[in-house]
Every structure is written in C-alpha cells, then in structure tokens.
Q: What sequence folds into this?
C-alpha cells in the first residue's frame, strides 16, 4: 500500500475497523455453527481482538499522522469554542509573520542573495583612501600597471557610468551606459548571449568604435534583424559596431551602485544599463592625465588572499601611492549604504514578532490554566504529561500555521508597500521574485512561533500537580503562573518602549531634515538635461554658443520667468568640476568642486547672496563662491572684490552665495566656486526653469525649441526640484514611516497583552474581590487595587525599555539620526507618557468589571 | 498433549501455500485448512490470522474482495496474486533450506 493510501486510510479509519469487525464476526459465526457453541464463545477463541485491531491499523494507516490528526481535531474543537481568541491569535501571527517575511524578502533580495556571477566570493573592489577623505577609486594609470604586473589577480577590470546620446533611425535617446574594460565580463564570469566581449585593442582610444547591447535593447532598436550583431549604432555621434549581446538577466547593479555620480532619473532609478561601451571612450586620445573616476575590481587568482593581493598592488604602485589601499569583497559591498537600515528593519520585525509571541503565549497560558481541571482529569485518566504537552503544542501549532499562511499573503502586500515607500533601496528587487529561501524562512518562523507560544503554556499548565488542580473549585492562577504572565507583559512593554523611542527619534530626524534650509527654492522649478555630442560640438565655443542660443529660446517661452544652465545641477548630477585655485597668502594650491553656470542660474534656482552679487555671464574672469568657501579661506573678512591670480587669468570674486546642500540634504556644503558657463561648457547641459506653467505644457515647449535648434539632441527627463528634494527625503521618510508603523503595531499588541493579563487576573480573583466588597471595600478602592496591580508589570517593562534605549539607541541609530540627540529627553518623556496612558487604559476595562462584581454571586461560586 | 505453536514467521508462508493450491478463500476457511492439513498439530490464535492477511495484502502478495455468502453475510475473499506466487516459491525454498540445515545440525549434534 502506498503512503498515499495510508494517509487516505487515516480518514476512513472507522470504515476499516468495521471491516475487520465484520471479518471476525463472520469467522466466529462459522466456528460457532461448526462446533455447536455460542457465537460469544467462538468470539472469545479469537484471542486479543483489540491488539489485532491495532496491528491491522498499523498495516493500513500512517500511524503518527493519525494521532496528530486526533490532536488537531481536539484543537479545532477548542478554537471553535473561542472564535474571537482564535481570530485574534491568527491575525496577530499573520501580521507578525507578514512583516518578518517581507523584511526578510527585502534583505534576501538586496543583500543575502548570492551575486549573479561565477564564484562571487573571489571578486573584490579596489579602494583607496587618503587620510580623512572618503574612499575613492584608484587612478587609471595604476590600474594599467597592476593589470600588467599583478599576479594575485586572474582578471582586473574597470568600469564607469557614462551618459550617451543614441541617434539613428528612430527618436534620439539619452541613455546611461556602462563603460567597461576588455576583461569586465571575463572577470565576472558572466557569459555573453551572443558575440564577444571587447578586445584589448578595442579599449584603446581611436579604435573603440564598438558597442555591446542588452538583449531587449537590441531587439527594440533593431526589430527587423534576427540578430543585432554586426549592425551599427550611432553613439554620441560615432558609428559603433555591435559586437556582443548580453542576456537580459545580466545584472550590473551590484557594481554600478558603487560608482556614484550619474544622472538620477527621478524616483526608482534604473541601475541596469542597456549599452556597454569600451572604457577608453571616456578618455581624449593621447591623454596622459590620470582619471580617478574609473572604478576597478578584480577576480582573485586561486590561492591568493585579499590581504596579499592588496599588498602586491601597494608594492607595484610604489611610493607614488599615498594613503591606504584595500580590497573589499564585492559580496560585502552590495547595498553597503542600505545595510544598516535593512538590518534595523529586520531587527524591528523580530522585535514585533517576539512581542506578538509573548502576547499569544500569555493568551494560551491563560486559556490552558482555565482548562486546568480538564487537563488534570485527562492526566488522571492516564494521559501522560508528554501526551498533554503534545496536545497543547498542537493547539499552538494550529494557529501558528494558519497565521503563517496568512503571513505569506500579508508579506506579498507589505513588500509592495516597502517598494513604494523606498524605490531606490529596492533597485535590486526589480526582479522581485520569491526565492525558495523565503518560503523556508516563512516555514521556520511559523514553526518557531508555534513552539514559542505553545511551550510556555504547556510547561506551566502541566507542571502543577494534578491533585491540586483537581481539588480547586474555581479556576485559579498559581503564583508562579501569574509571575510568568507578568514577565511577558513587562517584556512586551519594554520592547514597545524601545521601538517607540526609535520611531520618535527617526521622526524627529525626518522633520529636522525636511526643515533644513537648502539654500535654494524648490517650488515651480523644473529641471532637465541635454547632452551635446562631441562630434558635432567639438570645441568649447561651439558648446558655449549652443548654450546661449538654448537659453535665449527658453527665455522667449511665454510664462517662463527665469532660466539657467549648469554642467552640474544640485541633486541631479553630482559630478563637479575639479578646480585648482591658488589663494594669495596660502601655502598650497587648493582643490575644490566647481560648477560652470550660465543664464540666470542663481535666480532660477532661488539662491540667495550673503554678500556681493552674481557675476556678469559674459565675463570669463568673474567667479562667485559660497559661504563655506568664504569661511574656510577668508575667515573673518568678506571675499567680495578679492582677486585670485591664476597664471594667465585673474579671477575676481563678485559675490558669496548662501550654502546650497547639494550632496544629499544632510551633509553640510563643502567650499565651492561658481564659474561662468563659457569657461567650462562641458556636458551635461543641465537646465533649470522657473515657471508656473504646468509640466506637460513646458515639456511641449521645450521639445519644440530643441527640435528647431538641433533635432538630433534628445531632451532629458523633466524633473521638478520638488521631486529631486523629495527623492532626497525618501530615505529618512521611509525609515521614520516604517519604524512608526512597527511601533504603532507593537503598541496595539502590548496594550492587548496587558489587557488580557489583567482581565484574566480579575476573573481569577472574583471571589476575593467579592469578599473585599462584602467587607466594605468601595468602588474606588477596588479600582485602585486592580489598576495598581495591573500597572506593576508595564511600569517595570517601561523602565527597563527606556534604560536600554538610552544605552543602545545611539549605537543602533547613530548614523540614521540627524538634528536630534539619541538621548533627546522629549522623545523619552513622550514614550513614557504614551505607554503609561495606554497601560492605564488597558487596566481600566477589567477594573470596571471588578467594580461591578456582586459580592453575593462572587462568594457563591462553588 | 499441548499443541505446537507456529514457528516464527511461518504463518504467511502457510497462508500463501493454501491460497496457491485452492483458489480464493475467506479467513475462516484458511484457518480450517491449516488445522486440517497439520492434523490439528499446529494451533493458531485464530484472530491473529487477520493482521497477517492484511500484511500480505499490504505487500501485494494477495488481494482481497468483499462478497456476499449464500446466507447473505459479508465475507472477505482472499486470493493469491502473481507476485504472491513468486514470493511463495522463494519463501518455500528458503524455508526448506533453513529447516534442512536445522535438521542436519540436530542430526549431528
């Protein structure tokens, strides 16, 4: 008999038993007829019938399943008697596991999931940091030397992002491409779908007219051809031959996210490039100027260690290399900036889940104790402790399983919510598939919940001696059981206090960041970006002339109040010009970020001047600096009017702007200079327009003007300044909203738990309270008695939670906080007030019941 | 004289042998046949035949179906299958080899 039949037989056990009984009766009847004895006597000759029945069952049924089903049937019957409790329990587990699964899914997809490359643990990113500076990529000349000489790497590859303009048969397109070296795909062990990777020759300036496309992009761009291989594509005005196709599944995201400084395409930035170009396209032919914007990674040779490889690179670079060089395993670099937030999220869900479990354990404990007499009777009738424990565990498992199933659905909805709240983090979840690991996690969590919430009641309820339980007339809690349920309440309140504190601090952070003075206005400002192909606009003058024409045309659009251009717009494109200045009186040249700006840039952005005024856009020798610059290089004096002689040219400082927070909202502005656009008319041509026109109207107007100016230049995506700022606020808002959601959920859980325990205490103290009433206790007396008794555990939990918060909050949230101290007393007071108020409310309901107790009925019980 | 109990493990073999020789039988008829053939020397606990029959049925050596007897009683008829015949041959050979070996030992001991 197959196990399937055996399982089916479990459900027709009665039928099988009947069959055996029929067979045996037939046997006895025949025997009786033959021997002339009574059927009863013949039946007794059969032997131990019950034993045969069990043996026969063992043959036909799945035995463990059978007793499990029996337990489950009892459990179902029990829960049907308490539908509200059951529903509350299942709902709690559904929400708790839903959150945990959603959080795990996020962490899995963003961090834990193995990188989609061959042997990803052998890949390492190369970083360099000079003292006190942020880490950066090593310059290209060293990478060339390393590639030629380093033995600890089997491959060394470089890459960077680059905005390109695709022109050709259809609409011009502005796209983000990935520039890669010849070993890029080999180093990743990522095979191409068709064609080949770039050769070493093809990654040299001058012979780099080749391109590799993503499968879907190739199909889109060359719909007629069976294969795009061998076709030509116009990239930035250069005809490039398609030599390879990468599959759609190829993910460059893990590397791309390490190479910042590219255009943000609004919310939900797409990190996966469709176009791959030789890395040499970023160099001007024959240039010997070192480039520091190529990111480098390598595949370690077999037997090489990270440490050895790093020292080899250091040795090869020699003394020229100042600062620290190190190798970071690519696996640990993935989503490095989101890791703390994601782990905090997972931690918070575990907290919530623990609270939910504590609550349910309490609920089940109360329920088990109410049934103590039933359990005692069963135990007196011969059910062993193990059997009863198993029964109670099955009851817990039943609600856990139902809740777990609900949790999978809840997680599905919640993970959509998470993506909606914070699209940037979840860029790697573009293919948000559900991996088996996630189901394994859900299953483990569900089973653990069942054990957690079932174990305590099973232990406490079966621990009491049966005699005592049988003898007691009314249900009661032994002092030890009361003690345990109080511990659980204290635990819940403590954890809730922690979460509420975190939520309060993050909320303060969000408000602090939102109310930051950005140094610019964000209303009614629309930004876009153009890229001028270097082939048709080869000289600076060509590009400067285009910018002037573009500005003139935009200014004539009715409804446009003011318009400006820059090669680097705040929050939109963060690569600044590298400006080297000599300050009179200073020992060394200084290196700082600069922006070339044209038109009414300052006015269009709503920037304010602390001193002086904007420069005249037609003069090439006037500059504007920001307050950070003034404070650092001209402390205590106004830099306006100062001359900065720089060899052939002498700059005059005409004004000081208020600082603009450009690199993320929280970071204070570094010293910066603004130069006339004509001095550095580099790509991209970021444009800002101050207008009250609706977005679609301005879009049409912009397209029309660009079309008549140069039809081959694509218009970049229109993003309002509001959206850009909002994008920067996404992270603090996400963190605050999420933790607040969790905190609210736990608050509800904790107050329910508190209520449940106190209500149970009151119920079990009915005779005592009735006696007090009979002896003359007034209603306020009883009220006070119950509330003080009930507040005991929550207050202890609250005190512990707050104390723990003071100790650990700065460590957990440190980096996520801004503008608020991790020990902000207001937050802690607020948390304490909220929890005390909630606990009092939770006590009031049972206390009201206690007041209503009729002394006579209470005393008459039993 | 006390009757000999069944040697361990021989009941399924006897059941198969009987069913192979005579065709479909119900449990009681099998009991009678065993008693008759062994000249009542072998005694079985009558009820224990049924778990043994169910075990054989489970292993596929015999199959069973419910019938109604002439006086309208439900009776379960057991019949040997092809697999059962194969098993019988193998078991018989094994049994004889084992008893012969035991007999030899008894003879020379």
A:
């Amino acid at each position: 008999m197959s196990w399937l039949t055996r399982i089916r037989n479990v459900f027709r056990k009665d039928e099988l038993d009947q069959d055996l009984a029929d067979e045996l009766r037939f046997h006895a009847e025949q025997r009786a007829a033959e021997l002339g004895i009574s059927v009863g006597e013949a039946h007794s000759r059969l032997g131990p019938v019950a034993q045969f029945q069990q043996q026969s069952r063992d043959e036909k049924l799945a035995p463990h399943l059978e007793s499990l089903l029996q337990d489950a049937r009892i459990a179902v019957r029990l829960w049907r008697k308490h539908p509200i409790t059951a529903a509350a329990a299942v709902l709690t587990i559904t929400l708790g596991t839903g959150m945990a699964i959603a959080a795990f899914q996020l962490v899995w997809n963003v961090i834990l999931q193995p990188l989609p490359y061959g042997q990803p643990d052998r890949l390492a990113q190369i970083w360099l940091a000079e003292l006190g500076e942020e880490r950066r990529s090593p310059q290209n000349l060293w990478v060339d030397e390393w590639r030629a000489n380093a033995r600890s790497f089997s491959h060394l590859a470089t890459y960077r992002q680059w905005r390109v303009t695709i022109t050709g048969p259809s609409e011009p397109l502005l796209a983000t491409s990935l520039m890669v070296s010849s070993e890029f795909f080999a180093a990743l062990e990522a095979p191409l779908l068709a064609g080949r990777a770039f050769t070493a020759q093809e990654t040299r300036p001058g012979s780099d007219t080749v391109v590799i496309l993503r499968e879907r992009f190739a199909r889109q761009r060359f719909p007629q051809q069976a294969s795009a291989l061998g076709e030509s594509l116009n990239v930035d005005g250069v005809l490039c031959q398609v030599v390879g196709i990468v599959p759609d599944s190829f993910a460059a995201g893990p590397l791309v996210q390490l190479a910042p400084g590219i255009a943000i395409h609004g919310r939900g930035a797409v990190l996966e490039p469709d176009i791959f170009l030789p890395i040499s396209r970023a160099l001007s032919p024959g240039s010997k100027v070192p480039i520091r914007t190529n990111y480098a990674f390598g595949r370690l040779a077999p037997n090489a260690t990270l440490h050895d490889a790093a020292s080899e690179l250091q040795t090869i670079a020699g003394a020229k290399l100042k600062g620290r060089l190190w190798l970071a395993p690519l696996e640990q670099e993935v989503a490095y900036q989101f890791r703390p937030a994601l782990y905090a999220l997972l931690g918070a869900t575990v907290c919530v889940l623990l609270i939910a479990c504590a609550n349910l354990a309490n609920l089940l404990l109360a329920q088990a104790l109410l049934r103590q007499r039933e359990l005692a009777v069963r135990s007196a009738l011969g059910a062993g402790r193990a059997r009863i424990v198993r029964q109670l565990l099955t009851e817990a498992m039943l609600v856990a399983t139902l809740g777990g199933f609900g949790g999978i659905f809840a997680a599905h909805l919640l993970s959509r919510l998470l993506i909606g709240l914070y699209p940037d983090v979840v860029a790697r979840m573009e293919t948000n598939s559900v991996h088996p690991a996630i189901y394994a996690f859900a299953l483990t969590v569900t089973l653990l919940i069942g054990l957690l919430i079932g174990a305590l009641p099973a232990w406490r309820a079966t621990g009491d001696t049966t005699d005592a339980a049988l003898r007691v007339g009314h249900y009661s809690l032994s002092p030890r059981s009361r003690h345990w349920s109080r511990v659980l309440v204290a635990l819940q309140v403590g954890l809730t206090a922690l979460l509420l504190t975190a939520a309060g601090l993050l909320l303060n952070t969000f408000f602090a960041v939102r109310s930051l003075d950005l140094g610019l206005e964000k209303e009614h400002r629309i930004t876009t970006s153009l890229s001028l192909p270097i082939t048709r606009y080869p000289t600076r003058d060509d590009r400067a002339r285009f910018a002037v024409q573009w500005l003139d045309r935009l200014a004539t659009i009715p409804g446009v109040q003011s318009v400006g251009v820059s090669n680097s717009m705040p929050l939109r494109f963060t690569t600044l010009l590298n400006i080297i200045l000599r300050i009179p009186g200073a020992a060394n040249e200084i290196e700082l970020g600069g922006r070339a700006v044209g038109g009414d840039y300052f006015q269009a952005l709503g920037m304010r001047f602390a001193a002086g005024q904007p420069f005249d856009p037609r003069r090439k020798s006037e500059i504007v600096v920001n307050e950070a610059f003034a404070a650092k290089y001209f402390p205590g004096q106004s830099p306006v009017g100062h001359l900065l002689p720089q060899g052939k040219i002498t700059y005059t400082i005409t004004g000081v702007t208020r600082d603009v927070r450009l690199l993320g909202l929280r970071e204070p502005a570094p010293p910066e200079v603004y130069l006339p656009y004509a001095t550095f008319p580099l790509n991209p041509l970021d444009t800002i327009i101050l207008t009250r026109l609706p977005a679609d109207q301005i879009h049409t107007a912009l397209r029309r003007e660009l079309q008549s100016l140069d039809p081959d230049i694509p218009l970049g995506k229109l993003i309002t300044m509001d959206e850009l700022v909002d994008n920067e606020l996404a992270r603090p808002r996400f963190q605050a909203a999420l933790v607040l959601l969790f905190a609210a959920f736990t608050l509800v859980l904790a107050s329910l738990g508190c209520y449940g325990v106190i209500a149970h205490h009151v119920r079990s103290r009915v005779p005592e309270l009735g006696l007090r009433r009979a002896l003359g206790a007034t209603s306020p007396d009883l009220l006070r008695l119950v509330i003080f008794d009930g507040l005991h555990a929550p207050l202890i939990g609250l005190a512990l939670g707050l104390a723990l918060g003071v100790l650990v909050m700065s460590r957990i949230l440190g980096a996520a906080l801004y503008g608020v101290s991790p020990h902000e007393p207001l937050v802690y007071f607020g948390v304490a007030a909220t929890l005390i108020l909630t606990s009092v409310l939770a006590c009031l309901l049972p206390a009201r019941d206690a007041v209503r107790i009729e002394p006579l009925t209470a005393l008459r019980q039993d | 004289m006390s009757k000999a109990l069944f040697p361990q493990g021989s009941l399924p073999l006897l059941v198969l042998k009987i069913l192979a020789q005579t065709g479909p039988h119900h449990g009681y008829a099998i009991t009678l046949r065993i008693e008759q053939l062994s000249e009542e020397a072998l005694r079985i606990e009558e009820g224990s035949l049924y778990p043994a029959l169910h075990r054989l049925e489970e292993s596929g050596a015999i199959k069973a179906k419910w019938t109604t007897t002439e006086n309208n009683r439900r009776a379960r008829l057991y019949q040997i299958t092809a697999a059962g015949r194969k098993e019988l041959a193998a078991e018989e050979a094994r049994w004889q080899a084992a008893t012969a070996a035991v007999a030899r030992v008894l003879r020379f001991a």
Q: What stands out?
A: Chain B touches chain A through 17 residues (CB under 8 Å). The first strand of chain B starts at residue 4 and ends at 5.
